[in-house]
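User: Predict the full complex structure for these chains.
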Amino acid sequence: MRLLATLLLCLCIPLAWAAEANAPKLDTGKGGECVKDTQWMRKNHMHMLKHQRNETVRKGVRVEAEALKACVECHASTQDDSVTARADSFCVGCHRYAAVKIDCFECHASKRKEALANKDVK
Amino acid sequence: MSDINTQRRQFLKTSAGAAAIAIAPGMMLYQTAHGDTAAASSSVRWGMLIDTAQCKEGCNDCVNACNKENGLSGKTGVTDSQWIRKIEIKAVGSGHAVSLPMMCQHCEHPPCVDVCPTQASFKRADGIVLVDRHLCIGCRYCMMACPYKARSFVHETLEDQNPDVPRGKGTVEACSLCVHRIDKGQIPACAEACQNKAILFGDLNDANSEIYKKVRSVASVQIRADLRLNPGVRYQGL
Amino acid sequence: MADLSALRSMNRLYYVLLALGGLVVLGGAYAVHMMEHHGHIISGMNNQIVWGMPHVFAIFLIVAASGVLNVASIGSVFGKAIYKARAPLASLLSIAMLSGGLAVLMLDLGRPDRIIVAATNYNLTSVFAWNVVLYSGMFSLVIVYLWTMMERRMNPFNKAAGLAVFVWRFVLTTGTGLIFAFLTARQAYGSALLPPMFIVLSFAWGLAVFHVVQAAIYAWNEKALDPAILQRKKNLLGVFVVGSLYMVATYHFTNMYFAHQQSFELFILRDGGIYPNLFWWGYVVLGNLVPLLLIYMPGLGKSKCVMAAALLVVLGAFALLYVFIIGGQAFPLDIFPGYEVSSSFADGQIAGYKPSIYEFLLGFGGLAIAFLITTVSVRVLNFMPQDKPYISD
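Assistant: Here is the predicted structure of the three-chain assembly.
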């Protein structure tokens, strides 16, 4: 049993290493660190967003920095104001790489608020 | 046999421990998330008093304001969403005609919440009836149950939604009483837009609020009061 | 040698049937894909008629799935031998139609990808949520029931399983009726008569479907149904048809008695264009009167007549459901009793509805699923009714 576990772990190491090497280059927009550090966010952003969404929608607790809206504000590309428009856009780039479907932007805006406001004017 | 079992248990324990460690930081966040912002309070009951005498036939200011605020197209085809609409009514006997806005009545006992299979339709502590679009499966049973036809189904893909008002294909939506504005301390867009001040918005439970006093001093009715749903929206002059 | 070539052609026919069924299922899958991609805009449904053609198919399949078990119950619970011999086939049909109906219902959802949400977020006050339990429970119970019939060692539990299925199917059809009965604000629904009405309808529809399938299987195996058994089954179908007509008539009569419902009844029964036509011609004449004639008219009532009667009952079922579901929504909701109303959202107007091809594809896809499950199962397992020499009981 232990042998098997060890074997599996050993197999994972080169894979993990290879993964790091191929990691996608993302357009992180303005970026910055407003909630937690990058590693933590990479690992836990989905839990944070899901927790936040339930608190906000159902209870009315609104923590601005943790809202998806705030993520988009900082991480939307400085070129096209979007987190989903291109293959290397902040959300799409990584999710494609990890092969995880994002369901957020069927309803949520994937662009900065000001970009959408400007579009209305035009 | 028993040796293998012990080993397996050991392995399971270790993995359970590892999983707990992995989740722990997320749980920490649960605690830190609270603090500065308040949740909707059950001591509040948001409501509206609509003075039909002040509502002008042909005026669509409230509807337009709602469409703009919530990012609706403003089209009125059979598959387009309408969160608020103007209804012209005329009494069959007397011919007494009235124009009024109709939207989600934010019932105390909302049928849409009762029938929703997934708890996507829900009533917030402060009386606002909402659809949690994360849980909505698009069965439309709430639309069948609503006595006011307040709800619309999103029939096609939407793009460039208002960041404050997420909405999307395959789910049901309705007037949210502009919950995103209320949480910022503002009043709903329709109430703000009405030039004749026909829509009075406020806390029906707050003895100092204008709506509290007015509901007690002038005659007003709830629509389909016979159903005893106790809507939070009341109409004056019907 | 002649036998062998006959067998070969039967074999070929079987695969042709499978291919045809599969093709229709594929059509349904295409409709689902299109509806997923474009949204419900490509269906005929809209914000006034929120449930359309897929629901007519789904509710027919689900109601008939519960009704067909009646055949099994008469055997297992009331101990009638000729029905007991048909219990396995009835159970199979029930599972097949339930699968087809539920598939249509689920795939018509706005977000069918979230079906897991429906299974994990449960609202105790919702009839829909109760039905999720009722449907899955029925599924498992009927499978257990089939097991007790087809596995000799499980035979002792057959009676208990049969009773459980009997009770469950009544609760299930009640649940289906309650989906509408609880809609108090709508004139067409919100009646306590609906659950019993659906139960009696399920008897007729279930038996009709059963008869059609049974006749097909007998023809396939080149056997003839004992005329005495046919006589009993057609009489039972006749009684069920009369019973369901009575329930539907009572439902409309009670509605007409209430002044505030009269305009709705006039709409459905006289003025509503397609709806009264479908109701009188489709349901009453084709779905009830003609089948009754075919069954009871002296000189008729032969095997072919009963088959035609059963098919017409099924046709009538679709007509009735169309009138009930779509007609019920087309009539304007009475938000301001005593007022004439108009608005941009069809208040006070009869709502329009034109079913689209995708809705039909989806509905027929559901029927095809039921067809495929039945055809394959009948082929690989022994569902042929095994009658002992007929003894009257």
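Chain B touches chain C through 52 residues (CB under 8 Å).
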